[in-house]
Amino acid sequence: MQFDTKIAVVIRNDLPAWQKLNVASFLTSGVAAAFPECIGEAYEDASETKYLALIGQPILIYGADGPALSRALDRALTRNVTPAVYTEDMFKTTHDAANREAVKAVSRTDLNLVGIAMRAERKVIDKIVDGLKFHS
């Protein structure tokens, strides 16, 4: 099945594994919150045990260094795509309001990005992540 939209997550390559997983989790929650239509139906196994619904389309995860992350952010914004962002300063906070304060305290060009995520038409995402490789 081919979807009309793509979900892309771009994570800085030099993070420890636990931070990469943390960033990916938070960023995909931003996509789910902004696009509730991307959430599929709830799951149920043969024993009738209920499970939560998931995002119903593939999520492509790319790796990047700091400059490539900034470039992807700029590309997204110039194409009117609003991304979710995660900055290095957010690792030092302990709650959601503090995360927003950490981002608000820094101008866009000075954000120390560790990850971004976005959902848009396939061709638009392809242009935003052009030149990036899948995260390994």
Description:
- The structure is a single chain.
- This protein is an alpha+beta fold and 136 residues long.
- It has helices at residues 17-34, 66-78, 96-104, 122-128; strands at 5-12, 43-44, 50-51, 59-64, 84-87, 113-121, 133-134.
Compressed to H and E, one letter per element, the order equals EHEEEHEHEHE
Oligomer: single chain
Number of helices: 4
Distance between the termini: 25 Å
Strand order of the largest sheet: 5-6-1-4-7
- The portion of residues forming beta strands comes to 15-25%
| Helix content range | 25-40%
Content-based structural category: alpha+beta
Low-confidence stretches are none
Sketch the major β-sheet. 5 strands, mixed
Radius of gyration: 16 Å
Tell me the overall shape: globular
The overall strand count is 7
Mean pLDDT equals 96
Main features:
136 residues; alpha+beta; globular; two-stranded antiparallel sheet; 7 strands
Short description:
The protein has 136 residues and is an alpha+beta fold. It is 35% helix and 24% strand. The mean pLDDT is 96.
Write the layout of secondary structure elements.
Layout: E1 5-12, H1 17-34, E2 43-44, E3 50-51, E4 59-64, H2 66-78, E5 84-87, H3 96-104, E6 113-121, H4 122-128, E7 133-134
Parallel strand pairs: 1-4
Antiparallel strand pairs: 1-6, 2-3, 4-7, 5-6
